[in-house]
Write a structure and sequence with these properties.
By secondary structure, the chain is mainly alpha-helical. The protein is about 50% helix and about 5% strand. The chain has five helices and two strands. The chain has a two-stranded antiparallel sheet. The longest helix has about 30 residues. It is globular and about 55 Å long.
Length: about 180
């Protein structure tokens, strides 16, 4: 929910059932490319912060409203990011007891982990480590190294903006 993984609620997970050991099921996400404000047709600013907190939940009235509002697309909604509830997310997020725990944990994550103070330094350190590689890569492919570096820095800034603004959106929604 924090990274706006709009495609991961519908699909893009592997499930594993440990039949010999714990007997528990595990889920492993994959295909995380359309997160942090990115979706097909997204703004180049990656400034989509308002994915509903009910997204992926069975019986979600907002999702049904989106479907009616935007028509019918290949997955039931006309927006490029809308998906119906997934096989796991639909019933799980609609379960009242789980929903209560989910929202409490989301609040905890947004006040302790998914913060600019925690993630900002990690992202800035990554930026410093990768900047020289961006220029080398640009030279190797015949691109302008300065333009490539400027684009990279713009992407880093959008990453930081996504953390700040998505977090603000989530916390505001949790107060409703």
């Amino acid at each position: 929910m924090c990274i706006s993984n709009w495609d991961g609620f519908f699909n893009n997970d592997f499930t594993y059932h440990d039949v010999n050991g714990t007997k528990k099921w595990e889920m492993y996400p994959w295909d995380e490319d359309k997160t942090l404000g990115d979706y097909d047709g997204a703004s180049q600013r990656y400034d989509w912060y308002a994915m509903p907190l009910t997204f992926g939940m069975g019986g979600d009235r907002l999702a049904q409203g989106f479907s009616r509002l935007f028509g019918s697309g290949p997955f039931g909604g006309g927006t490029s990011w809308w998906r119906p509830p997934g096989h796991f997310s639909g019933p799980l997020l609609a379960n009242p007891e789980f929903r209560k725990r989910f929202l409490a944990r989301l609040r905890e994550i947004c006040t302790t982990i998914f913060t600019e103070e925690k993630l900002g330094p990690v992202i800035r350190e990554l930026e410093q480590r990768l900047a020289p590689e961006i220029q080398v890569g640009a030279q190797a492919t015949g691109e302008n190294p300065q333009e490539s570096l400027t684009r990279f820095q713009r992407h880093i800034q959008s990453f930081l903006g996504q953390i700040e603004n998505r977090r603000k959106f989530i916390l505001a929604e949790l107060e409703k």
